[in-house]
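pasting for the record
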Amino acid sequence: MNRKIGPAIRKHARSPRRFGPFAVVTAAALIASACGGGSSSAPPGGSAGPAAISGTLRLFSYSDGFAPAYIKSFTEQYPNVHLVKEPFGNGDEAVAKMQAGFQADVVNSCVDENTLTMVQDGLYQPLDVSRIPDWNNIFPAMKGLPGVQVDGKVYMIPVDAGTAGIMYNADVITTPPNSWIDLFDPKYQGRAAIEDNSTTAIDIGALANGITDPLSMTPDQLDTVKNFLIAHKGQFRTYWQSDSDITSLFKSNEVVISSGYPGNAKILQRDGMNVKFAVAKEGQMLWTCGYGIQTGASNTDAAYALLNWYLDWHQELFEAKTWNYEVANQLILQHASQALIQDASLNAPNSFANAIPASPPENRAAWTQVWQEVKAA
């Protein structure tokens, strides 16, 4: 999904959107600011013996996973590795492409989207955590997310996380929204937007209808949400699919309020727009994304080097400063400024254990079908 934020067009909002694995938490539990601090240059990270690692390494990821300023230090540190980068727009697209025969070495996934599916479908191979020096530095709650470990084996290395909320043009909307129901306010009819992602859209519809545990909805509740979204379809200018989509919609003033992520708002702020990010009182959707090695990978040494590079605190610091992502490596707390720790909610993973675990809905296929029916209505 579009959870995450990157410079290239992607489905997401890992899409940058990329909004990814999520939990529903109270607004008091996790407040993510749209502004981060510090430099946005990524210093070299560390994996032993880079000169000895060579060959082609195929990366299949949301585009923020290889943003030029971000991935630069990996390519500099591993000059003998030829990194081939392939973007995807969302987790479902990635799974479908791999099931059709696409082969990579390292694959990005998000807990609320496709991590567990990739494990169950045999697309991820078990990892040897003895080759992941920072494994023991990952926030414990992140290690327990669905798909990270299955039947005692590790399949995915968590790297980053964040929250979905409400973006709004503060020059137009002077009273900050504080509820998901604000997206459906008639005064914004035709000037609102929502992400084109079944999990995100249905979650928002459920929370706006007072359903406090969307992931465990009954068929009747899911039907209620479907009818609600269909009835309010005219509220939305569009269902946005990429970071460039939502950025353009705000810049053209076609949209003044939308579901989104802190990173989306931050990019618009950098471009001079007074777009702010707000949390919803009913709950936030928390995503967590990371990387694993695809079954059949041909360059596992380089693949482990890339996994370690992503998890290294230097790269985690870059993500926090650049995109306001929360990150998996606890060492970040020893190196980030107190202002950045607060702005990017870098302590937030400590509270994951007190939230509903990030996971896809229990009846994901039904959710996907409902969202298709909403869009076709």
